Amino acid sequence: MSSSKTLRKLHVVSPVPADIDIANSVEPLHISEIAQEVNLSPNHYDLYGKYKAKVLLSVLDGLEGSGDGYYVVVGGITPTPLGEGKSTTTVGLCQALGAFLDKKVVTCVRQPSQGPTFGIKGGAAGGGYSQVIPMDEFNLHMTGDIHAITAANNLLAAAIDTRIFHESTQSDKGLLNRLCPPNKEGKRSFSDIMFRRLKKIGISKTKPEDLTPQEVNKFARLDIDPDSITWRRVMDVNDRFLRKITVGQGPEEKGMMRETGFDISVASEIMAVLALTTSLADMRERLGNMVIGNSKAGTPITADDLGLGGALTVLMKDAINPTLMQTLEGTPVLVHAGPFANIAHGNSSIVADKIALKLVGPSGFVVTEAGFGADIGAEKFMNIKCRYSGLTPQCAVIVATIRALKMHGGGPEVVAGRPLDHTYLTENVALVEAGCVNMARHISNMKSYGVNVVVAVNMFSTDSEAELNAVTNAALAAGAFDAVICTHHAHGGKGAVDLGIAVQKACESVSQPLKFLYPLDVSIKEKIEAIAKSYGASGVEYSEQAEKQIEMYSKQGFSNLPICMAKTQYSFSHIPSEKGAPSGFVLPIRDVRASIGAGFIYPLVGTMSTMPGLPTRPCFYDIDLDTATGRVIGLS
Amino acid sequence: MSSSKTLRKLHVVSPVPADIDIANSVEPLHISEIAQEVNLSPNHYDLYGKYKAKVLLSVLDGLEGSGDGYYVVVGGITPTPLGEGKSTTTVGLCQALGAFLDKKVVTCVRQPSQGPTFGIKGGAAGGGYSQVIPMDEFNLHMTGDIHAITAANNLLAAAIDTRIFHESTQSDKGLLNRLCPPNKEGKRSFSDIMFRRLKKIGISKTKPEDLTPQEVNKFARLDIDPDSITWRRVMDVNDRFLRKITVGQGPEEKGMMRETGFDISVASEIMAVLALTTSLADMRERLGNMVIGNSKAGTPITADDLGLGGALTVLMKDAINPTLMQTLEGTPVLVHAGPFANIAHGNSSIVADKIALKLVGPSGFVVTEAGFGADIGAEKFMNIKCRYSGLTPQCAVIVATIRALKMHGGGPEVVAGRPLDHTYLTENVALVEAGCVNMARHISNMKSYGVNVVVAVNMFSTDSEAELNAVTNAALAAGAFDAVICTHHAHGGKGAVDLGIAVQKACESVSQPLKFLYPLDVSIKEKIEAIAKSYGASGVEYSEQAEKQIEMYSKQGFSNLPICMAKTQYSFSHIPSEKGAPSGFVLPIRDVRASIGAGFIYPLVGTMSTMPGLPTRPCFYDIDLDTATGRVIGLS
User: If you average pLDDT over every residue of chain A, what do you get?
Assistant: First the structure.
């Protein structure tokens, strides 16, 4: 056990109790104590209650000269629908490093959406004896970042429809007069943000009255093509009835109806902006540059064209500060951003990782999780997140389970909510060995980025020694730096000490720059094909719509952006049922979209749902408040 | 100037600068200093950054035995569309009492909606030298209460549509099996919240397998009549295109489309619940009792029937704690709840007032604002808010302006955004005198509750002494305890010292219980008619729809609730252009609705918009963040 003052010894019970019961059994430390342990002075954070603090971006100003710690990303093999414990392993590894190996360590994780918390999945704070606490504060509201995203996203949506409506009823001159109302002295002027649009359309005049009629038209009439609008409204609730709706049916809206829909808030481009931004000034530009659709002439229309980049930044100004929390064993956690892992890049924020790397300093560790399987989350971590941050990881942890490897070896389908087949509960070494092809491809993919790969086998009580040995042997044979059995779910950090040691060695024995899978300055198609090849595909097939979109984005000057594939995580290929390591398939690209402000183009491989639904009996049936103690009950 | 440590001397500039410039010119105190001044110990509040703290409801436990301060409500005469400075007067009066008259004082105000902040109106933190600061934190997100309301409201909305959908595709038995899934041992059981529904429908069995087929049907099938659903979705954005929408148009929803719409979040019944609740346990019951519509058989369906009362309470558990902020002169403010003033009761929360009254103690002052004109906001303060809280006010302040009185005397129409007519900028004593009938009726209405009435004339630089004298004379003649000229907008608390003295005397010289306008145990119609009489109406006319609804609510057992009139604030009557003190008119009741969980029935007098729109040039064009300093600019 380390000597640090904030660390907490766990009293482990077997069998492992429910997550909420474990979380509630530990009294969290006041977050100022955690802050002190990572040398955060009180002027560098704002408290949000007793157990959460927002770390101010300004902390970086004072740390510019100091060195970074080791940077570890946690990915996984292609998972079953039950998940293989990536978050739990991320937390467990940090508990081991911090509480047992005497290392400075910060865990960086995503903020979960509230939708699944009340739907099917429950919370996302890790599990067993490897959790972020307080679990209810982690899963609900937290410090309001997702609410800020919802507010900003929907203000932009409201501005789009209202602008189209007002343009439909007003002359060019009327529009200009309303956009630039006279002040008390009767003088009209442009607001600061209007100069951004004037510059974009090549007008250098500074007074509204100097514009020619053509310039007035060009400036004041955005002429948005309603059919081109890609900006949807969002809500952090699983509301399937909002997937496709018609708006504008009130009598005051004079028949200007339009089909659109809601996504869940974490699918908003603003979430992706939050995750990829590097500073307030950078966020201001990204938010202003978000493209909501095209004019009828085909010009991209941005949030700044609508006058909103500044207001969106104001709504997001606190959200840019990561939230400090703690693990069950008292090690620090930064929770920040949680973009979708298919239509976005599925990684927590750059700013949190940057702050964490400075706080732990050289020889300290920052462990950050990449969503989905490593073919998606970790690939995007490397090619999108690290490209924008300039940071270099030393180690990739690949989480594997005997259960998932058996599935890849040919075991029966695993379905959430249904009892596991007998195959998964009894020894079958051959099946495990057969499934290791999946793990091997993830290992070799990750190695190609120049990092050391450590396999973490997240052990279940039903796993046999022979099965576990089969995995570690296969991992080493596939080129892993090390492969370690972990029991952090049952034992907390103590169960991940071997993993911690392996990760430390892996980090210390690598020192090369990150090798990207593709350069930015090749065509969109070349980039897509490079990623497809890493999946095992022999080629790529583009739909007519995809071709059209690629041509449009290339013409609009967006072809130099990185690529964010929207693909299932349940197979290397586009077909979820193809387990193991499929190859020789042709990857179909159904459509291509873009998050210009966030900074990526996302090809759609198949259909992606961006708004989950509630089941007949959602989690909320069990959730209540003990009004006498104020304690949340039934959260899972 | 008082001796208190937190009070701050203002350096007043003339002419009065823009609100945001005044707000930014003052460095707010750390909120823990304000907390200390009102004897709040650190274990009774949670910090939210440096300038906001949530005061925990538990503070009341330790103060049960101590006495309350004086309780002052601020209402207004029938206003112009520009507003007559009720919030500013509320803040100015408190700055006078706290910073100049050495009184313990707490200001209780509503949290503003973000919609108007980015739309037309701008913020709502008061104005000039009488403001709540930091103004940007007050107007944006604050401590997340409205976001929590949005999340809770929309989770309930999603649950309604999803339940109807699932009921349409499943047998009674299938529904029961899904609602009560087997545990690991294969046993089915009811969750705690299901016992609420079982009790409601008269079933005392405790095991799912014991239900008869009829009981299964009764329990598991809510059979919601889609046409009866009154629960709408909400968003804290001015989004006019969401006023009327069709949901469920996605292919997975199998054609189960439905017309519905969004209101702005502050119009949610959950906001009214927050404002009227008295404890966590009370809030749990009110949220569970909210009626979302009827079954096809006409039974009201509640949030608890849908299994959601507990989860909604969990989402609202932090929102129930009021937010402590400060005025420009360093006096404490509690910001909490902000229900609509037409379809709801337009007053800040009961819990904030209760906490404030204990914190200031006997001889201290709590000043709370009631939205709209006194015919609406203050009437509801008395008959709804005080009825639920059991608190007794001593003094009602009626804010009047020369401008509004001239309008009531027959001056030309006042329109927001258009220059004021010359009449309002030059002396016209006769017009002012003629308009005083409006003020006189408000005074006499308020007096009937047993409180002393003090008129605060919010002075503008164009007002003449003769005009001002005319008002104070008329006020005294109408029975006001006192009438005082105030200049707090230009001078801060110093400009409201006379008002503070008058209010103090008014409070000290009254000691009678609150006399309600109507008892609860008469019929809905009798209650409506009592309120209509206070407007000057000679009678009430009910539409067929209103008659039907009154009959339904009476049959459902809800006739004992107080009445919350949804009427324009621009006239005592239902016609906004009828200024002065109209009488002899017949008040038309178009429809009658109910917020059963919040606890009132609301008759609709005319059409009420519950979702504002954005203008062609919304406020957001001026709002930006100075990314170098992190300061918000352009907020008004």
Answer: 95
Q: Are strands B365-369 and B105-109 parallel, antiparallel or unpaired?
A: parallel
The pLDDT score that the predictor gives to residue B2 is 47
Closest-CA distance, B446 to chain A, in angstroms, reads 37
> Distances in Å between the alpha carbon of B420 and those of B403, B413, B580?
10, 9, 19
Yes or no, beta carbons of A634 and B317 under 8 Å apart: no
- Residues 264-303, chain A: which have Cβ within 8 Å of B? 279-281, 283-284
Which residues in chain B have Cβ-Cβ distances shorter than 8 Å to A233? Answer: 235, 239, 242
CA distance A292 to A159: 11
Asked if residue A617 belongs to a domain, the reply is: no
Domain with B549 in it? 524-604
Instruction: Give me the phi and psi of B294, to 5 degrees please.
Output: -120, 160
Q: Does A621 touch chain B (CB under 8 A)?
A: yes
| pLDDT attached to residue B418 | 82
Residues 120-139 of chain B whose Cβ lies under 8 A from any Cβ of chain A: 136
CA distance B31 to chain A (A): 12
| Tens digits of residue pLDDT in A114-155 | 998 898 766 778 999 999 999 999 999 999 999 999 999 999
| A193 contacts B311? CB cut-off 8 A | no
Residues ≥6 apart with Cβ < 8 Å to A460 = A401, A402, A403
A144 in reach of chain B (CB within 8 A): yes
Are B139 and B153 part of one and the same domain? no
Q: Do B178 and A616 touch (CB under 8 A)?
A: yes
Q: How many C-beta atoms lie closer than 10 Å to residue B259's C-beta?
A: 13
pLDDT at B1: 41
**Count of domains forming chain A:** 3
pLDDT of A125: 83
pLDDT at residue A4, rounded to an integer = 66
Average pLDDT over residues A53-78: 95
DSSP label at residue A430: H
How many cross-chain Cβ pairs, A to B, lie less than 8 Å apart?
283
In a domain, B514, yes or no: no
Whether residue A332 is found in the same domain as residue A284: no
Share of chain A above pLDDT 70, in %: 99
- Report the pLDDT value the prediction gives residue A3, as an integer from 0 to 100: 52
Q: Which residue on chain A is closest to B181 by alpha carbon?
A: A617
B177 touches chain A (CB under 8 A): no
Looking at the fold, whether A280 and A339 belong to one and the same domain comes out as: no
CATH of residue B134's domain is: 3.40.50.300
DSSP letters for B248-315: --SGGGTT--EEE-EEEGGGSHHHHHHHH--SHHHHHHHHHH-EEEEBTTS-EEETTTTT-HHHHHHH
Is residue A237 within 8 angstroms of chain B, CB to CB?
Answer: yes
What is the end-to-end Cα distance of chain B in Å, rounded? Answer: 30
Q: Does one domain contain both B478 and B455? A: yes
| Residue in this structure with the two tokens 């299994």, named with its chain if needed | B307
pLDDT tens per residue, range B398-449: 999 999 999 999 999 999 878 899 999 999 999 999 999 999 999 999 999 9
pLDDT at B3: 52
Per residue in B581-621, pLDDT (tens digit) is 999 999 999 999 999 999 999 999 988 899 999 999 999 99
Average pLDDT on A520-545 reads 98
pLDDT in tens, B241-291: 999 999 999 999 999 999 999 999 999 999 999 999 999 999 999 999 999
Contact A311 B166 (CB under 8 A): no
Of A46, A246, A314, which has the smallest distance from its Cβ to B632's Cβ? Answer: A314
CATH number at residue A268: 3.30.1510.10
Query: How close does chain B come to A92, measured CA to CA in Å?
Result: 27
How far apart, in whole angstroms, are the C-alpha atoms of residue B294 and residue A91? 47
**B121/B204 same-domain check:** no
B320 to chain A, any CB pair closer than 8 A? The answer is no
CB contact under 8 A, A241 and B259: no
A632 touches chain B (CB under 8 A): yes
Whether B158 sits inside 8 A of A192 (CB atoms) is no
